[in-house]
Amino acid sequence: MAISKFSLFLILVAAAGPLLYNGVRHHLTVLGVYRSPIFVSSNQDIHKIPDTLQCEDIHYYAPGNLLFAACEDSVLPRFQWFPPLDHLDKPPETPGSIHIIDPQTLKSSRLTFENFPGSFVTHGIDVVQDPDRSDAVYIFAVNHLGNPEYQPDTDIHKARSQIEVFHHVLKTSTVRHVRSVRHPLVKAPNDIYATGPYSFYVTNDHYYLRGYMRLVENFVPWIKWTNVVHVQLDRLTASDETAGVNATIALPNLWAANGLGHGQSDEEILVTSVLGGTMWRTQASKDHSRTLSIRDDISVDSIIDNPSYYDDPYRTVDDDASGYVLAGLRRAIDLPKTHHDPAATEGVIVWYIRRSKDGTGWEKRVIFEDDGSSIRSASAAVLVPINPAKGATQKEAWLFVTGFVSNNVIAVKVQL
């Protein structure tokens, strides 16, 4: 019996219907459509750390027991200029700053720049030990600059982002600018994973920098145009941002690639899909290509940004609290209405994920949730260990949470 083209179409739709329904429902769940906007913070004893404004990313440097963050210095410029949110009105004239937070005193100290007079619009960062001296680190930071070559009514974009490399000696108050890095493959940088002074990975969070197609890649999960790029430097001293910069695509065909993070070993590199609510656990090849391969993935029911891994220093065979920490928004569906408004709020959610006791799966738990009254937006969170009291049956840690438009980094004790 002959089957008409229309009948065949109906059969295909009926067969694919459940898959499409499940995919759409998961996407709506991640965006927070089914999550109530009315909520009170799940933690009362919240510490707001002064002088930590709009720190999009934060890293715990265990060898020095310090937190590093890249922050803004005033509220309004981020709402006028932040290319990742398509804020392109006016590049700020005031620079951002790099801060060190002491997890014991909960105080922030801003570092004084050396050899860096330029503008600094902060985003993702990473911190890696100086291989030549144990008391120093290199800091890699995304910088969203305005494009000096921009002309209206042309294809030249308003922004021209690059990566800044800094050097800091621990227990000093300064940070020295080493060089700037720019490459055509790195056109929408979001976050960084450094493997050493000369090598790092960086995510491109969009393929299109503006216009209708940028919206399309945001809302269509099947369009996988973002990627991770590996950058290799052949020199650390260069006045030209493009000098000695070699780049290759390390992981292509991702939807909404965003955060990068260090995993449970030096070989594990964490990559997130912000809109997919997915974290990929990847591994770098050992040849010169430095390509990444996806080992597996972990999904949660919210958008997620910069991932981190908590390495439990007090673990035992029977009690290991090591796990992944993922920060995001409770209702990302509201972000298009709030991201331009300095007075608005976005509720936040932080996930803690550890291996199940039988070792076959993952235990996923929300360890912090807030309606936006304690912290606005969440793009990164890290855990800092607390030495268990003798006889304690429950481990605790300090949870530090920060956001791309938050007024402060916050700290709160959580049970693991």
UniProtKB/TrEMBL annotation:
Binds 2 calcium ions per subunit. The keyword Transferase does not apply. Keywords: Calcium, Disulfide bond, Glycoprotein, Hydrolase, Metal-binding, Signal. Residues 1-16 form the signal peptide. The active site is at 123 (proton acceptor). Glycans are attached at residue 306. Pfam families: Arylesterase. Glycosylated. One of its GO terms (molecular function) is arylesterase activity. Its cofactor is Ca(2+). Coiled coil: none annotated. Ca(2+) binds at residues 57, 125, 190-191, 258, 305-306. SUPFAM superfamilies: Calcium-dependent phosphotriesterase (SSF63829). PANTHER family: PARAOXONASE, PARAOXONASE-RELATED. Belongs to the paraoxonase family. This is Serum paraoxonase/arylesterase family protein. It comes from Aspergillus versicolor CBS 583.65.
